[in-house]
Amino acid sequence: MKLGCHISIAKGFATTVENAHQLGCESFQFFTKNPRAFKGKAADPVQAEKGRKLMAEYGLVAVAHAPYITNLSTPDDELQAISIASLTQDLENAEAYGAVGCVCHMGKHVAQGEEYGMTRMVETLDMLLEQYKGACTLLLENTAGQGTELGTTMEQCVETRSRVAQPHRIGFCFDTCHGFAAGAYRPETWDEFVANARSIGYWEHLKAIHLNDSKADFGAHKDRHANLGKGFIGEEGIARLLRSGAFDGLPVCLETPVETEEDYRPELAFARSLYQ
Ligand SMILES: [Zn+2]
Ligand SMILES: [Zn+2]
Q: What would be the CATH architecture of the domain defined by 2-275?
C-alpha cells in the first residue's frame, strides 16, 4: 500500500506535493477546490506541471476529492445542474494535477426514498460523464449512512456503477470509518467483508482508501473520524485491516482530525508500526 494523508492545496499544487513528500507520504489526497463551495478556480497549469514533475520524482500518488456539498441524488434540477458543472471542474482539475481519480460521496436522497435517490444519482452521473470527456475516473465513496446518505453497502456502490451508461469511468474509494459506522464490517468480520466485496465486483474497481478510526460505534450511522487507535475500530482493529493485504497497491490516505499537517507525521509512523 502507499500510505499518506490529506494535504492542503491552499499554497498551490507544487507546495502540496512538497509538503506530502516532507511528511514521508507515499500518497496524498487534496481538495480540487474549496470543499464548502461549488465555484472554484480551474487548476493552475504552471503549478500542475511543477507538481506532476515532483510527484514523478518522489514516487507519489495523488487522490483528488470533490467538495462535500455536492449531492449526486438531489431532486432539485437547479442544484443538479450546479453539481454537474462543479464536478466537471473537479474532474478537470484532478486530471490536470495527475490524480488517480476524483472522490465524490454517494448521493443523499433527502427524504425522497432510496429508490428515487439511486435513480437520480445514476441520472446525474450519466449527465456528468456526458459533459466531462476527460480521462479522470470518478471515485464513489461509501458513506456512514448519516441522514439520508446512500452507499452504506458495497452492493449499493456496485449497483450504482453498473447502472450508469459508462461504468468503466467510475471507480470506488473505501472509507474505513464510514464502512464501520454504516455497519458494513467489524474488524472481526473484515476478511469475510473483503471476500464478499471481491465477489460482487467492488474491490477490482477500488482505487483509493481513506484510513480513519471512528468516533461513532459500529452501525451508529454517524460520520465522525477519529485518530487511529482512538476510536471504536481501535488499534487492534486498524492493525487487522492494514495487515490483511486488502489494501495492497492502493493509496491509503488518512483523513483523521489534526491541528496542523505536521500532526500527521506521528500518525503515519503509528500506522506504519501497525503493519510493518
Ligand atoms: Zn473519506
Ligand atoms: Zn467522512
A: Alpha-Beta Barrel (3.20)
